[in-house]
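Quick one, tokens below:
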């Protein structure tokens, strides 16, 4: 079901957790510039606006990442995801508040790349154990993976309950997204048999084009159990990270913002949540 509400009405909705433990949604693509971080940040912001306690884990060592967008409200030298992988602190100790009410972040810097070179023992299952040990004040975990299938991404997929594939709407990006099928199948077979592909997000799309309609049809056929959701193109999306604001604050009336509200609403029942105040 697709909801069409005014910007002010979206903010009036409320959810509560029905699942015994927090669900974990990892947003992935092996290619950069796929809208992955935008999807992770906006879904986190929407869920938090509805009253859910959200933790966003940034698994991308690039400086242009969720950590830059949602600046951690801690002084320099705070623990990061790298410290968790190196065994120097817990996920709770590395969790920092942000300027977005209800959203906390496990930040990453470019030093996270050390995980790939040092390969700390037990890294594949590390995050799953860390999240299991720290559930008291979290309703949903959002994991923003790096644009690769490195060790941190594998750890995120192993820890997750649900995966969302984010891609730009082009033939080449569709082919790139299709390449995820094999590693995801291996993750399910060897590490996480319960991992569910719950959404495919088509960013920068134009629903009026033949290409967008064709890719939507193909993805719906290939992922029959997933939400296939189109997000239109907008320059405002590119401006928001520089202002360190989510789209629901920076551009509340933009069609992209509406599209992400709608995506988050569709994810509510799949992520162990239910409506207090329904759309």
């Amino acid at each position: 079901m697709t909801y069409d509400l005014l910007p002010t009405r979206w903010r009036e909705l409320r959810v509560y957790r029905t699942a015994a433990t927090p669900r974990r949604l990892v947003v992935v693509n092996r290619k950069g510039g796929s809208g992955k971080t935008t999807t992770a940040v906006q879904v986190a912001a929407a869920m938090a606006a509805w009253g859910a306690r959200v933790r966003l884990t940034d698994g991308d060592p690039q400086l242009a990442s969720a950590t830059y967008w949602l600046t951690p409200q801690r002084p320099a030298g705070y623990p990061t995801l790298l410290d968790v992988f190196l065994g120097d602190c817990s996920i709770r100790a590395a969790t920092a508040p942000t300027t977005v009410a209800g959203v906390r972040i496990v930040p990453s810097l470019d030093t996270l790349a050390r995980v790939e070179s040092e390969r700390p023992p037990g890294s594949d299952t590390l995050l799953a154990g860390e999240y299991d040990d720290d559930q008291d004040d979290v309703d949903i975990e959002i994991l923003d993976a790096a644009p690769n299938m490195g060790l941190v991404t594998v750890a995120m997929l192993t820890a997750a309950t649900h995966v969302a594939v984010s891609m730009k709407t082009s033939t080449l990006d569709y082919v790139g997204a299709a390449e995820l099928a094999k590693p995801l199948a291996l993750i399910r077979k060897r590490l996480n048999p319960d991992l569910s592909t719950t959404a495919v997000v088509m960013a920068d799309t134009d629903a009026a084009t033949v290409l967008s309609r064709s890719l939507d049809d193909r993805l719906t056929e290939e992922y029959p159990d997933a939400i296939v959701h189109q997000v239109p193109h907008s320059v405002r999306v590119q401006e928001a990270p520089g202002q360190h604001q989510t789209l629901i604050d920076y551009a509340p009336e933009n069609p992209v913002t509406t599209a992400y509200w709608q995506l988050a609403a569709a994810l509510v029942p799949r992520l162990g949540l239910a409506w207090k105040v329904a759309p």
